[in-house]
Amino acid sequence: MAMQPLKKRIFHLVVLTVMTCSLVSCSTTNENGVKESRDPDKQLGLLRIYLEIHEDGIRSQRVQVLRSAPFEVVVDRNPILTEANLDSISVKHNELGMFIELQADRRGSWLLESYTATNTGRRLVISAAFPEMIWLAAPIIRARVADGVIRFAPDATVEEAKQLEIAVMNSIRKIKNLKKPKVEKDSDGEKSTDEASRTDGVLFRNSRRPG
Q: Which residues, given as ranges, of the chain have pLDDT below 70?
């Protein structure tokens, strides 16, 4: 029996949708509000920096950070910085191990300087979703940050950190309408890492507050 015209159109639409998804790597949005891409190099990521505050039951929330040695921190529900306030994110290494460096843009640098200048002794609590959410770090603010740079040791594996770098940079480029730069390789065919060992500036660590 021949298919009725309406059923035939529906069948063709379903087939076309499946074929399109196969060709262009369809994405879905997860519970964290992040679109999941089948291509890791095209994955988008979110990054949020929260400020520790006193619990007030209204704008505060408790979060658990550090999977290796978990503890709770009370933070403002609204982040002070997001990926929209960043110019770059990069994974670097020095003699102490791996760390992540965030470079804020002009507005982000102003906000970071303002908050760190008036909240010494409190924590910056950093989370990311790429697409799964991780609470990366909760370093204590030791001094005013005037150059817009945050360096911290993340609660993440090297693989997770690299995935985070790719995903968040993809989001930054999308927000700021930037083109992805070409990767330069040295004579041995390796990616250039001239900046990888630089550690000038503040390197935040996830130290616990005494008591």
A: 1-37, 182-211
Say which CATH number the domain at 75 has.
3.30.1360.200
What's the distance, Cα to Cα, between the start and end of the chain in Å? 79
Does residue 81 lie within any of the structural domains? yes
pLDDT digits (tens, 9 = 90+) for 29-73: 555 455 666 787 899 999 999 999 999 989 999 999 988 889 999
In angstroms, the CA 122 to CA 45 distance is: 26
pTM of the model: 0.74
d(C-alpha 119, C-alpha 117), whole Å: 6
Query: What is the domain range of residue 70?
Result: 41-180+195-204
Strand-pairing partners, residue 76, are 60
Handedness of CA 104, 106, 107, 109 (dihedral sign): positive
In the three-class reduction of DSSP (H, G, I as helix; E, B as strand; rest coil), residue 115 is classed as: helix
- What is the rounded CA–CA span in Å between residue 140 and residue 59? 21
How much is the pLDDT for 14? 43
Q: Give me the number of domains the chain comprises.
A: 1
